[in-house]
Amino acid sequence: MISVYLKRRKNMVSITQKMHQQAAPLWQESFDHPFIKELASGSLPTDTFRYYLKQDRYYLENFGDLHQQIADHLSDASIKQFLYDGAQGLHDDEATIRREFFQELSITTDEIKTTPIAPNAYNYVSHMYHELNEGSPARAAAALLPCYWLYNEIGKKLVKNGSPVKIYQQFINTYDSNGFTDATNQMINIVDKLGEQADPDEKQKMNTAFIRSSYYELHFWGMAYNHQKWA
Fold this sequence. Notes:
Layout: H1 2-11, H2 15-31, H3 34-41, H4 46-72, H5 77-104, H6 109-113, H7 119-135, H8 137-159, H9 166-176, H10 178-196, H11 200-225
Helix pairs in contact: 2-11, 4-5, 4-7, 4-8, 4-11, 7-8, 7-11, 8-9, 8-10, 8-11
């Protein structure tokens, strides 16, 4: 009986596989976006990458906080530990990488403080907090997943040819690294585990959270490429 169950389970399509399939058109648009294409070719204007980094700093700060807040709502010890570790890593390791980029591009603390949050960055972060505070930890975890998974796929696609610009190559390497790939796989497993515990309505809402985050990921590139402003 156990072998039959495992065989059936192996043949089942997981919730994250379904999410990935449904988000595929949005992700393809990300792969084909001029921001990504020009990052790889080295033709992306430096001021556009600077804009991206300043907005991404705001996003990652909240992304890290959300890891901890989601963990606080869960009881599974292994999931909680991964999310707590992720929160610490995003505040420490990712911040260290970004500081190096900021130094190389002369992005000062004063410039960061006086840079307004762009509409898409604001909306993306608000969406994730909404999924936690008005939804559930499972929906919030699903909302976090595209940032891991999409960036990991972009890193793996771009690393094959690389970029002639050193800082762009460093950026690509970050998301193709073994450590980031491992974290991505763990996050996928977490969402699958939470999905297994969810009823059909909750599964659908987790899927919606994932798709919306994928939408905001796509428009993050456009936000940076066009130097989006409120007016």
